[in-house]
What we know:
alpha/beta, binds uridine-5'-diphosphate
Amino acid sequence: MEAPIIWFVIPCYNEEQVLPETSGLFEEHLCSLIKEGLVSSKSRICFVNDGSSDDTWDIISELAKEPLFEGISLSRNQGHQNALLAGLMEAKNHCDAAISIDCDGQDDILASRSMILSFRDGAEIVYGVRSNRDTDTRFKKMTAEAFYKLLSSLGVDVVFNHADYRLMSKKALIALSQFKEVNLFLRGLVPLIGLSSDTVEYERAPRMAGESHYPLKKMLSLAIDGITSLSTKPLHLISMTGIIASALGIIGIIWSIATALTGHSVAGWSSVICAICLLGGLQLLCLGVIGEYIGKIYLEVKERPRYLIAERTYHE
Ligand code: UDP
Ligand code: MG
């Protein structure tokens, strides 16, 4: 087999602190892969500047003067998932396989060697799976694991402890390009492609510098996106709750009429308040969930572009 052209796709948002450090690691690693004959010398490291407000794009443009680096810059900040998609869609026109990886050095770049070996053995998608979560805070560990469990109980096929470090062949990338949704949750979409897949374990290190762009609020919204864009089970649960609540309501009505008729009725203030509070709360919750889905439909029907590329360091 001829050595494949591999593109490393690396989204960057305000990463001026880490880029100078990690770009060297990426370059060193790619050079050694090329030297080993495992990948073609046409392989590239492609940074995606996700509308950074600091010097990230200047650093990328400077790096791109060297042969192994390329970069694209989005017109504004579109979020990690869209930036990743932009990079992958660019890569698909140039490479045999693309590897997506974070730019902060948290994903062990050395694991990509096993991914490439697995790709050369015929896998179309190779998932990077964290072997442990020792470097996470207890809170992040617990919420992340609960989230994966919740997703799978809602019928969403996700790879446990896999984030967005993965290899996708050109074939898988072309398949991904046919998914047109605006609400992106790549780690839920990619398993839907099917094709042959494999997993590679790696240890996730702490960030080399700078700060995480995933505070609790963004993590929650990614989680809600993940659930609502891949599963309609919450809507089904609402209908079931509605059926149970109505059944209880009918029993309550029969009971209250019966007590009134037999003359045992008392001033039932607390039971009335309880019923109102419970049902009121339930109704608002259900409306909220339905609203989430309607909001998603609204965003989808507009079919706005998921990203716009403002600049490239190479010709298309
Ligand atoms: N990122 C991005 N756009 C954003 C937020 C993050 O492209 O709006 C990139 C970021 O530069 C990094 C990756 O996504 O390469 C993961 O982000 P981060 O390390 O902040 O998240 P964490 O590892 O803490 O989950
Ligand atoms: Mg990170």
